[in-house]
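hiii so my PI (J.) wants the whole complex modelled not just the main chain, which honestly fair. so below is everything: two entries, each one labled with what it is. i double checked the lines twice but i was tired so who knows lol
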Amino acid sequence: MSSLISVNNLTRHYGDFCAVNNISFDLAAGEILGFLGPNGAGKSSTMQMLSGNLAPTYGAISINGIDLLENPKAAKASLGYLPENPPLYKEMTVTEYLQFCGRLHLIDKTQLDQACDLAIERCGLGEVRRRLINNLSKGYQQRVGIAQAILHSPPVIILDEPTVGLDPIQILEIRQLIKTLGESHGIILCTHILPEVQAVCSRVQIINQGNLVYSSSIDELLNKQTTQYEISLSATPALDEISGQDIFTSVERVDEHNFIIDSDSSAENLIEHIVKQQWGLNRFTARQTSLEQIFIELTAGDIEMDDTSL
Amino acid sequence: MILTIARREFRSMFMTPLAWVILAVVQVILAWSFFSAIDVFFNIQSDLTTLKNAPGVTDLIASPLFELSSVVLLMVMPLLTMRLISEEKRNRTISLLLSAPVSNTEIVLGKYLGLLFFIICLLFLITLMPLSLAMGTELDFAKLFSGVFGLFLALAAFSAAGLYLSSLTDNPMIAAISTFGLLLLLWMLNVSSASASGDGNVFAYLSLHVHFTALLRGILNTRDIAYFLLFIFGFIVLTIRQLETQRLQS
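here's the output for the full assembly
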């Protein structure tokens, strides 16, 4: 299947500062791509370039097979974009605003009302549809922003931190909505809420200091065989006593009773082995390679750098 | 598409108090001067009859009214144009337009057209005043039309300059002040030409005021009309270019 978005060697400089460095990736229909990165990593710059708000220094972007730089109008027609700050005209009512957006996105007059109603219903805006956007709470404003992005049912939807300012129930609703939309559209979800990516996305990419440092599908990530286990013992054996066992490749002491062990053996063998030692095993946990771990591992470089610069 | 943007622009002006306040203030000031002009006219009416080739009611009431309108609106237009693009940049709503299938030209023309609709409303209210005289006396409609047309072109030129300056900054206040400065400068350029001799003609030619006065006197000269059209065209093209550049730099 041809990809909805294809990005090639995308680079963006701000003067001497390189915000995005030679990024390439694709997005297929029915895929929800989580785009992660610490603050200032180049996430929003990338999103702005994908949505045509910012011109790349070089590189090519094509949306739905149409080159964004050569034929921006046609390419943008298949795009729905929610920027970091929802672009709301606060003096309009929700319905007025959505109708304006619909007209901007060339929705046919006969379908305009229907499209607005659908977006309003999907984002749970029914109660506030006649109110001025200015008078809505942050959460509702955010939802109007999402409604605007999905209104014209574009093949590609780019959401930059869509769940900011929502209450926990709304967050669940919006995640559900994104999942539903992801079945038929291609979605890029830009966020720093890691559990959100784990819950919603089918693929994840991490960007750090302008470089794409990680890309993998979520299933692959979660099913990765772990070799690390956390154990808690009621006895306090010496570290040497544990690391002396051949079955462990490495042992690390967290505190008096807790250890992190590394081993290629199966969990079953390990438990059996530990029980035999009569150390009083209290807890045995296989360490999930969580997104958080990978994220910190890949982006920790600049934390150390920040420390030295301070 | 241009009309969609223009319509939103026009409606949003009336959804905020700004448009209403401006319409009201301008109307009160102009109405006051209109009444005093009528008063003066009644006082000197008897003297006028003795004059040969005496100026008519249009010259004595409508033309000064338009002249005053142009000065008042020179101060008011920056307040209307300041928010056109700079506020969108400040509130980040501009990204809605930039990520929609709309070209920069359409965005700029849409906004400009929206403002022109407002100017037409403003002009309509102003023109009603001299028109009301038609109930009691005879008006020189051709001259009246020329005056209204001149005022329209001047306001359209003010808006184009204001639109451009609004695209340069994301602070509406700065846009308003610089627009006011630029317009005032262009308006007064001919003052220096009056004092300087010879080469002052260049300044007179560049001055908005000189071209406006010609139309006000009822002289429909292609030179003056071309000046205004070029002025408007120039600033609109600059604005479109500016939006383009911002996409590259921001």
